[in-house]
Amino acid sequence: MMSRIADVETDLERVVARIFERCGPHLNIASPLGLGKPNLLLNALYRAVADHPERRLHLFTALSLARPVPKPGLEQRFLGPFLERQFGADYPELDYVVARRKNALPDNIEITEFYLQSGAWLRNEGAQCDYASINYTHVARDVAARQPNLLVQLVARRGDKLSLSCNPDTVLDLLDLMQAQGQPRPMVVLVVHPDLPYLGNDAEIDASVADLVLDTPGPAHRLFALPREPVLPSEHAIGLHASAWVKDGGTLQIGIGALSDAIVNALLWRHQDPAAHAAQISALAPACMGPEHGRFERGLYGASEMVMDGFMHLRRGDILKRRVFDDLALQRLLNDHHVKETADASTLDRLLESGFLTMQVDRPSLDRLQHFGWIDEGVRLHEGRLHWPNGSESSADLHEQSARDTLRAHMLGRQLRHGRYLHGGFWLGSKPLQDWLGSLQGEDYSGLCMTRISHINQLYGGREALDIAQRHHARFFNTCMMQTVFGAAVSDGLADGQVVSGVGGQYNFVAMAHAIPNGRSVLLLRSTRESGGRVISNIVYQYGHATIPRHLRDIVITEYGAADLRGQTDSDCIKRMLAITDSRFQEVLLSEARQNGKVERRFVIPDAWKQNRPERLRDALAPARAAGRINAFPFGSDLSDDELKIAKVLKFLKAETGTSAGKLKTLARAYLSGDRADQKYLERMGLADPGDNEERMFARLLGYGFARQEV
Fold it and tell me: Where does the UniProt annotation place the signal sequence (predicted)?
């Protein structure tokens, strides 16, 4: 039975005072990544330390969410109103993030993060110097080594119950580890947010975990919701290729962003129209197709460190429906199709044959059957006989045919219970995801289990066999920035040591894929990128940094197809990578491989591979676009229709003004053209009545862009 919440405060400043009374002037704080940070409390502690030089604060965390900071001009005019609508005018930015952007953290405040918001902190000295490169599974260990004296986290509340909701990932592991090592327990302060979805199972905690709960009455600031990103045609192609590697009855791990949306969109298409889905992939790259193309009859189970919008769409689309159970023998029976989740006439015989159930039903056997729902909880065992709820009884000795017949008839049609269709370590996504999580009921609610990252991201820890059985035919999808032709992946940093994001759980999932007999790691990347007006290949011969070493190479996917590298020679890896490389860069890579003796000199690029060009890709995807199967926002947008049109024009203008010469040329053309945008677009951008020369120039640029873009 859960204990009552003993100590609740409603005043933020009182909580801050009590923290210093308990912890002293030096705060060593642990707080979860992403949404789980209590911004208001962290800001109050920041100010309390910044204003008192004799105090110190060291925060260990990750993924400090922050609203985008638009550049002055058209970008500010467009994003300003949208950001206020998306996050609310009162959203509390983290004070340490604002200060760090300016490299202006006070000397007595230190922030250490093990994962950074992607690309946001490049060339920022403070963030780069204080970054700690840690696998997600080692975070609890490494935070415990720093001996935090304060742990703060956002939680959901339902009466006297508390839920870690979005972030059960590290806090429980950290507290258990510190206790096991005999360390002093940190003060645990949990902050209630009234809009945070209350989730059960492992996310629900006993109130005794908290030393203090801050539950402020009245309205709260909005939860941070990620805006939904557009998906490019090339990203849809990557998603289509990826979807053909997912096995029905298997396991799925995906991250967040456009590529993950593309995978989910393709999986839904495959489930709804397998023939058209397969035909589209064949049109894209018939020589580099994955092997899976049928409907998801058994469905998928999700085991992902991050739960994002895609899992919501897959659940609604009747794909995320395979459930796993915390019983090794039962899970293996389900994997091997010996039993189904609904008991039929053969179920009892299969249970007996496998040893799951003994011929003499004893107390442990009965408890097991009742726990999983195959026998009514009202059935009792007494002196070798089963007593049924209707008053009848039968022998517990299943050697007797009548006893077996009675038990079989009772089990027939009963559904297994206590299964999970999704395990996750933390969740983060759009406002629709938050609403969905908050509205879950029945099996949708009980089948989702937010849990410890030690359960999600690793196989060791004492339950390896069960974890492997549950992650049957696992497909772990992760993105990277670059790939070498030998299969090493560059995902989190640059050759000069600059950190783009962090390793997070990527290494963990790649390693698990190789440890699970039928698991696969799939790394996704766009074949090219633009930089300084030039197109650059993301597939390179070698690079001065690797997140995933070449000896863990497996499947690599670009918009031009999939390269299966597992167990291949270096020469074969190079050839398979060339097959999914943009044709503009194939010969250069091949030449370097020849020069270094890694590919035989007589090898030449096949003609079919030379078709890897953007224009061919657009043509191949044209039928899917026309049929409405792929578009920029397959799951909706947070922008209005008018805003989407303005965004397209602004993207065009940004490309046209990317160089000094281009900027001058575009300004001159806009000034001379006399084109004018529709009044509604000018009003949205605050340019309906330009007041000075700058605003008049902005209005002319907007008119010039609309005249040259189909919107």
Answer: none
